[in-house]
Design goal:
mainly alpha; Arp2/3 complex 21 kDa subunit ARPC3; two-stranded antiparallel sheet; 4% strand; globular
Length: 164
């Protein structure tokens, strides 16, 4: 249990730090685009749905807090947590099935934030958020795959290899 908590905390911190280096504000929607999806996808595929849910939700909420977008924290906890959980369900599947998991995760992000943006700022802003979230999801997949390989190697030889 201690190892799992430590692992989730370190992975969440890594995603937050990576994401805070690259934030593109979207004034029309009151939100921003970042690299969090790459980390969430990699963690979910490496460690499964529980890690995807916890790390996704925690890192998504913390990014909002530290980047000055507190109105998004609850939405990010739910959306990124659910995104990580669903992608993590495809952990031990074939590559084509993992691709389906990544597509479902992207759909959760895009639809979730479109709905949240609509709730906060109206339908026009919700529709405007779709393109930015599509871009964030695609970049997340493209960068998440190499990150998955790096994390796999790092955790293969680490203290965290034992236990959950």
């Amino acid at each position: 249990m201690t190892r799992a908590v430590t692992r989730y905390a370190l992975l969440s911190a890594m995603i937050v730090v990576i994401s805070l280096f690259f934030i593109v504000p979207i004034p029309a929607t009151g939100g921003f685009v970042n690299l969090s999806d790459a980390g969430i996808y990699a963690v979910a595929l490496l460690f499964g749905p529980q890690a995807g849910w916890i790390v996704g939700g925690l890192s998504g909420g913390m990014i909002d807090l530290f980047s000055g977008y507190p109105q998004w924290i609850i939405f990010s906890l739910i959306i990124h947590g659910f995104q990580g959980y669903v992608v993590g369900q495809f952990r031990h599947k074939s590559l084509p099935k993992q691709a389906i998991g990544l597509i479902l995760g992207a759909a959760i992000l895009i639809i979730g934030y479109a709905l949240a943006t609509t709730l906060l700022y109206g339908l026009a802003a919700g529709m405007a958020s779709i393109l930015g979230n599509v871009i964030q999801s695609v970049v997340g997949v493209v960068l998440g795959i190499p990150l998955l390989k790096v994390l796999t190697r790092a955790f293969q030889y680490s203290y965290f290899k034992k236990g959950v």
